[in-house]
């Protein structure tokens, strides 16, 4: 099935960013990380944005959009929505045409393609970990820190992200315990000094989490082990924040967008790739700051670049 533009979408705010940057006329398709595809179908000739009109614009996804802002969904749903189930498995580009293949056997073609497949937070791989996400286990102090005001929390990790978020948590939480597997912080010295000067911050170096403790599906504590002494103990917490890195999942698209040594798309703020007509946006590409606002901005930049590309290759 041929289309003008496809967006392989993952990040929630990319929905708003791409919609604000690209004219939409036809169908948009999103797929969450469970392989559930949400297809938003507009009426022929109906324009969703005020930047022009194409015959068809598709949004195909390979990551999660389950946390998309209500306003963005409402705006998209105003086009009329149909829900279908498919899972994107690979992308190929040949002679200026980009093809997206799904697990169910469907093939979609387009002149321009935006890859916005996001990243996943690295987890510890402990039993019951995924079930505790949102029930005491979080990845974002900016997003969830206020829920733990006046309570005890743990920050797992020792890099810049972990230290920055631990500082933020120390402003609202009664106590912050940092669990770092190494004997030192791996982030900036000034952040480490700031943390060590906080009276409500305790740092456990050379320590790893061996298990989560929970009651009725809610996190209540962490089992720890000192890597130098082998000694184990348990701490009680109301919440824990994981900051042990991000994991890009871009391998399926390596044929159309070059990856760096960490697996991120090699692209700068222009969101371009080495393949004409293929653009990347959001946390999946090389960048210094990975926040929802920068992802939304990438969406608009990539969408406008894709529009210009299509206009020049009619």
CATH fold name of the largest domain: FAD/NAD(P)-binding domain
Number of strands: 19
Helix content: 10-25%
If helices are DSSP runs of H or I spanning 4 or more residues, what is the number of helices? 7
The CATH homologous superfamily of the largest domain corresponds to FAD/NAD(P)-binding domain
User: How far do the termini sit from each other?
Assistant: 18 Å
Q: Can you describe what's shown?
A:
This protein has 314 residues and is an alpha/beta fold. It has helices at 12-21, 70-77, 129-132, 141-144, 160-170, 189-196, 292-311, and strands at residues 2-9, 27-31, 36-41, 57-61, 81-85, 88-94, 97-102, 107-116, 119-121, 137-138, 152-156, 175-179, 201-204, 207-215, 218-226, 232-236, 239-242, 246-248, 278-280. Strands 1, 4, 6, 7, 8 and 19 form a six-stranded mixed β-sheet that branches. A five-stranded parallel β-sheet has the order 10-17-11-12-13, with helices on one face. Helix 5 links the parallel strand 11 (152-156) and strand 12 (175-179).
Please outline the helices and strands.
Elements lengths: L1 E8 L2 H10 L5 E5 L4 E6 L15 E5 L8 H8 L3 E5 L2 E7 L2 E6 L4 E10 L2 E3 L7 H4 L4 E2 L2 H4 L7 E5 L3 H11 L4 E5 L9 H8 L4 E4 L2 E9 L2 E9 L5 E5 L2 E4 L3 E3 L29 E3 L11 H20 L3
Parallel strand pairs: 1-4, 1-8, 8-19, 10-17, 11-12, 11-17, 12-13
Antiparallel strand pairs: 2-3, 3-5, 6-7, 7-8, 9-18, 14-15, 15-16
Helix pairs in contact: 1-7, 5-6
Key traits:
alpha/beta, six-stranded mixed β-sheet, 7 helices, FAD/NAD(P)-binding domain, 314 residues, elongated
